[in-house]
Amino acid sequence: LVAPRQRIQITGAPVSPFAKNAPAMLKPAVDAYVGKDYASCEKLVADLIAGGVVGKDDMPTTEYLLRQAREIQASINADLARMQRLCKEGNPAEAKTFVAGLNGILPDGDARLAAIETEIGAAKQSVSTGATNTTGTAVRADVDVVDADDAAKKAEEAAIAADEAAKKAAARTWERLVSELPAGMGKQGDDLKAKPDKASMWKIRIVEDIAQAPAGWAAPSFDDSAWPVTELPVSWRMYHTALLRTTFTVQDKTSYDGLRFFAWLFRQQGIEIHLNGELVAKVNNLEEKTGDVEAELNASALKHLKDGENTLAISTRHNWRWGMLSMKVYNDGFDFNLDARKK
Asked: Could you tell me which CATH number the domain at 174-342 has?
């Protein structure tokens, strides 16, 4: 995962369905995908999942292939719909720029693309007449575009419906599991189902270097009873590393299908995020002025979530003098929020 102005490494990614060591049962679906028959690929994978034949270890790879098949179909439908709109708006030249890309991912002789290419050839580009009205304003004469045939119209309607369905799916709500103080610098998330009214409580220990961290400090079983308690945001001595631990409760982990974090990481380096003792993400090489960072974790991180009490542990090195200049950007230090996406 690459985010603007920062490099984020997400660990624990599932095996690619296109790799040599991918589950053998996915081969027919992968062959369909490579053959550009994405609908068949989607059906084959969905049938495997529905049939209960996919093991726990293979499920992340299987779900990834299903997601890829659905997303490429939604992308194709959206591009086809946009091409038709451009033709109707009198801009077939721009519509034509999509043809090469679609030819690369659609099977030869695809009827939908062929119909739109015919429409592009019949459409006329809107042009300016060069004339002016009495106020000196240029007059534009738009030439009506030839109506698409019934097949093309149906394709556009289907593409628009698929695009709307994809947008609806993307608009699902998130639930905050770990929260900073409401007035913190980090993003709160406009798509949260419910924003907590109080911050999570963290245990914190400061060490000069991560090598000095106690053995097993990120594990749920680690005894942090002697560590001080804090809320986020928090700052600490320059060039030292903070070890942070908090817990949160999950009622039903199967009700979630994604995890993300919002964090204020100004002047933080070497950040490692652990969920129930397992490393799920790293953030490093932030530029000097980078503050808010948002990232969705790989689907594989969900396998470390459990019903009941969960432990989130973070290590991060602070390389800016805390309290400097009496400015909020410096004083607010580090904060972190963890969200789960509702199915």
From this structure: 2.60.120.260
DSSP symbols for 151-207: HHHHHHHHHHHHHHHHHHHHT--EEEEE---TTSSS---TTBS---SSPPPEEEEEE
Query: 108: buried, middle or exposed (CB in 10 Å: 19+, 13-18, 0-12)?
Result: exposed
Q: What is the pTM of this model?
A: 0.50
48 alpha carbon, distance to own chain's centre: 25
Q: What are the φ and ψ backbone dihedral angles of 96, each rounded to 5 degrees?
A: -65, -25
Q: Is 38 helix (H, G, I), strand (E, B) or coil?
A: helix
Sheet holding 174-178, edge to edge: 174-178, 335-342, 256-264, 292-296
d(CA 157, CA 198): 46
Going from N- to C-terminal start, the domains of the chain cover 13-170, 174-342
β-partners of residue 250 are 308
Please report, in tens digits, the pLDDT of each residue of the chain (343 residues total).
Answer: 444 455 555 555 678 888 888 899 999 999 999 999 999 999 999 999 998 888 888 998 999 899 889 988 988 998 898 888 888 888 888 888 888 888 888 888 899 989 988 888 887 665 443 444 444 444 343 434 334 455 566 667 777 776 666 665 555 688 999 988 664 434 455 555 556 667 899 999 999 889 999 999 999 999 999 999 998 888 888 788 999 999 999 999 999 999 999 888 877 888 999 999 999 998 876 655 557 788 889 888 999 999 999 999 999 988 764 444 334 444 457 889 999 998 8
> Helix or strand or coil: residue 114?
helix
Report whether the peptide linkage leading into residue 220 is cis, meaning its omega lies within 30 degrees of zero.
Answer: no
